[in-house]
């Protein structure tokens, strides 16, 4: 039977070769009609034998292009139009659905083969791409995703590229960044003074030579400039750290191949899949002790961030066997936005020796994504290139709500109908440049999505930059408690709607009465929450200064718990700080610039300082990261040993955790020269135990509570802690959920904020 149908496919179906894929199916199954992009997705008008139509629909569902993500397929029977052929027709700009902005994708195998083929017209061309790979998000300036709406409009296609672009059977049909050496962007190498030294292949060859000679080169990629140097040369890595003012924070590396990565690190099958996926993120791997990498790549850590080459240019850098591993770190000075414009080159002159750039403009700068695996789950450390801006579906009415996130590891979220589009990782909103970058991205997202905010969700902290940004937007502001947002973020990440328990372990979050929270046991949902238990608060002498100098945090705890003996312990632990200890003692007595804090992050800081691991943090979370890294270094025997702690019940709804016995015992173990690894393992076991016991005590007092638990907050980046608390609770019959699609730290905060705002409204 001959019939006609209209098929509307929604989801990530633009910029991924979907229309050529449909065209191919039409030829395969002898069907006639049209296929077209609009803001709704892809619309297919097709007619032919009923059996062939069913086969086409089956292939769409089961074997779509690898970059596509189909959310919905709607099929309607329509009258026959008696099409004579099947054609791809121009995009329409109408439609009510959320416009899907395609993400950047790593070079595909077919393009890589062509680039390495001396007989191919794109041999060694560093901007080769097709519908299955190349820049997308970073080059778009408006929707729909057509070449005229991208930065590639500045490069008119040559005849050969135009033939490919217009040929529906070609892999590059409507590949918007299509180009070749005759018509596309070019690469240029400059010296520090801005003088052009070489172009195209010669520029790439010279760059490789310079890196081998121990030079630092800024390289413009898909989303911005990286700083690159030979990762095997310890002195040049030191020089890079010095120039970038990044003394301790780990540096990511890019390796030539999976084989090189295996020589340097242990890689599971799950980690291999991530390294080679179309997103090609940085994957945090455990490094091999016998590896040839110098220790200053990731100072004092057993792990390292590794990525494979994801652009044609990257592959060309590794082509001639001279290089197999290079440091690849963002070129911006610490704390400032990504450098991505050629106008930014002056900022690079004091950091790098040479600059390898190209003349394809970047409209949307973006960082590399960073992920880690815990053996079962994937955890986002930074959600950016490749994963952004894929929308997250929700059952909440988030339309025209914007959530501005937190101050650290910032992301914002924009609501459009029943979708949430989160920004990529922006960073810490601690200076005018970062705030301006945030506001620029927010403006672009509102334009892309056609959102005019009516309601803006912000963190309750009155001094966060987001609060002042919200005032400029001149609309209703909804203030949301930090840990409630973490709780709901993890609920939404797992599709949970019923009230549940939440363990929120993080660094700092504005609590009530000016106290700093961060070791919280909550119960609730997006509508409301109760704080049922928490860590006992201790003084934070100097406030923010104590966050950056963990030894101050330790002193605050010791002087608070044991005013006399504590001072002696402080002087023994930090003998070079006697004068400051005396001042801090007075600050605590007179409550001067000494907020009270009960947070997991500050607890880790204090123990790290007590054990002599990290007294001054040069980057956020350094003390905690270096402390928890000890849990990765050896195959730990599960002794189950732990320290003492007290659970104090004030009321059935208010339990307090007192870890002072543990802190005292840790200090005694240190003085008795116990193994640091053993102390740290016992410390982690204690935290796991007290979290499980707190939850058990809470549900014993309140047997009506749902036995579902979500785990959120930055401290759950500690893989051991997350895994063991989850296991411990599951043994007690709880259903436990961790984050899946957004980070557990403040990078996931805006997701919780936007859902809470939707329910409050």
TrEMBL record:
All residue ranges annotated as the YrdC-like domain in the record: 201-386
PROSITE patterns in the cross-refs: ACYLPHOSPHATASE_1, ACYLPHOSPHATASE_3, YRDC
Reactions this protein catalyses: an acyl phosphate + H2O = a carboxylate + phosphate + H(+); C-terminal L-cysteinyl-[HypE protein] + carbamoyl phosphate + ATP + H2O = C-terminal S-carboxamide-L-cysteinyl-[HypE protein] + AMP + phosphate + diphosphate + H(+)
Top-level division of the source organism's lineage: Bacteria
Pathway assigned to this chain's UniProt record: Protein modification; [NiFe] hydrogenase maturation
Stated family: Belongs to the acylphosphatase family.
Protein name: Carbamoyltransferase
